[in-house]
Amino acid sequence: MNADLIVRAARIENFDAAPAPSTASVVAVQDGRIVAVGGEDLLRERAGAATRVLDFPAATLVPGLTDSHAHPVWGAIEVGTGLDLGGASTLDEVCARIAVRLAEQRGPAWVTGFDLDVNVFDGEPTGQPLEHRFPGAPISLMTRDAHSLVVSPAVIDRMGLTGTETFDDASRIVIGPDGRPTGFVLELQAMELVFAHYPAVPLADAVRHVTDRLRAFAATGLTGLHALDFASPSEEVYRAIERAGDLPVRVRCSPLVPADSTRGDWEAVVAQQRLAGRRWHVAGAKFMLDGTADNGSAWFEHPDVFGQNRLPLWKDVEGYREAVRFFTEHDVPTATHAIGDQAVRTALDVIEETGHAASAPHRIEHIESIPDDLLPRFAALGVVAGLQPVHATRMTRADRSDNWSHRIGPERAAHGWRTRDLLDHGAVVALGSDWPIGIGDPRTALSDAQLRRPVDEPTTVPVQPGQRISAREAYAGMTRSPAIAAGSAGRLGRIAPGYLADLTVFARNPLDLSPEEQADNPVLATVVDGSVLHHTAQECAS
């Protein structure tokens, strides 16, 4: 049978742990699936008059890269409409950017921003400096971990916040010594109060922002994303994009189950599992068992230096246990956000009690600091560990002068983001970005994972260099491991007959390059379902 598409390159690389020698360089695709992998003889056997043949001399074909943890819809809207505060390391720099945005707006409209570094504040973040610099301006800035906001007094007054608001989870409106809100808004339910007052984004604008971002992801080598959310307007955006064409990447969506949620909430998420388009579908559910260490809302066995980071975000832990059991019984795999050691321990205990869903394994996301005794339990229980390399390399410092390290102390900081240790204990480690919280270019995460420092900062001292992993292990973490996490190991994550034709075409073999060179390795094309997107050097750099 003739193929629809034949892709020829210099080499095919599957990132197997123990690779067998291979001279394969040609992939034949029919109806969106790989039907044959081999050498030049495939051209004679499978090429017909209607076959599209693509040649990439000197290039390497790899399984399509998948980011196992991203937030493409709300992230694209936030980045598309908000003020980027990335790289602003002082409060003066933050205010300078706000001043430019206010001048551009020429009016009283809100200023919303993202990627605020809490280290710019001398102590706990507060909105008072915003009022001092910009009297009366409604300003709301999301912190880098996306688990808190710093809002101006104008926002507090406009919303009528008092600090006495109550929430189902461990969210709170922080109050100062005077009993008034300081402008520091912690965790998701409290943040939602503020988001409700943001200017509405028209659906057409949201579709444009998301489409542009998905195209940019494809240009960096991604063919798939695990979206760890499915909030409005996700479904509307995906359907609108597919009315005009196809998504540039494949998207697997796992809706967030609110902390301390009800059985009715769980049933609604189960009902969402049937939703799908051509290249997106809903599968799984996400839980937030704790918050973040930077905010003091992570759940550690022992409190931090401020007496915080000692409680779960999901206050009713028994309710969390029942929720995992409920979804497992309904064949819905779960992903639990667990940063502190006690949160990770609890999630592992619960999964040990409930077992896994039939369709895919349960997973635990972030796992920022864990003791030695938890390492072997991931492999023993079949739990996928979801890690984000750029969090380790760009949110912490080797000298432990950053907020995260200071709060949890040197012993726990030394047990942070244990990628090497988890792999050595047999765990499946799926790598992601947590975009827009982390950098979305997978080549950056893959390089950082090998270096344990920012690839673009050669003089920066590595953070826990003993946790470095090899290039082969890193790329497996964005090919084979996400497929296992999604219950799709038999159809994604490899270049082999019967697998979906999702491919990334690199100009050079990543395994022949240094980590620094991998970060700039041009992506010539991506293939999803046998459909080819060519990329230019300019696109890949964007």
Write the layout of secondary structure elements.
Blueprint lengths: L4 E8 L13 E5 L2 E6 L2 H6 L5 E12 L1 E6 L1 H10 L1 E2 L6 H15 L5 E6 L11 H6 L5 E5 L4 E4 L1 H7 L12 E4 L5 E6 L1 H8 L7 H17 L2 E6 L6 H11 L5 E4 L2 E2 L5 H10 L7 E3 L2 E4 L28 H13 L4 E5 L2 H14 L8 E4 L8 H7 L2 E4 L1 H6 L8 H6 L1 H4 L5 H6 L4 E3 L10 H10 L19 H6 L3 H6 L17 E4 L8 H4 L4 E6 L2 E4 L2 H5 L1
Parallel strand pairs: 1-4, 5-12, 6-7, 7-8, 12-13, 13-15, 14-16, 16-17, 17-18, 18-19, 19-20
Antiparallel strand pairs: 1-2, 2-3, 4-21, 8-9, 9-11, 10-11, 21-22, 22-23
Structure description:
The protein has 542 residues and is an alpha/beta fold. It has three domains: 5-63 and 498-541, Roll (Urease, subunit C, domain 1); 66-73 and 202-485, Metal-dependent hydrolases (TIM Barrel), CATH 3.20.20; 74-195, Diaminopimelate Epimerase, Chain A, domain 1 (Roll), CATH 3.10.310.70. 33% of the residues lie in helices and 21% in strands. The chain is built from 21 helices and 23 strands. Strand 12, helix 8 and strand 13 form a beta-alpha-beta unit. Helix 2 packs across helix 7, helix 7 crosses helix 8 (234-244) and helix 10 (317-329) crosses helix 11. It is globular and about 80 Å long. Residues 538-542 have low confidence and may be disordered.
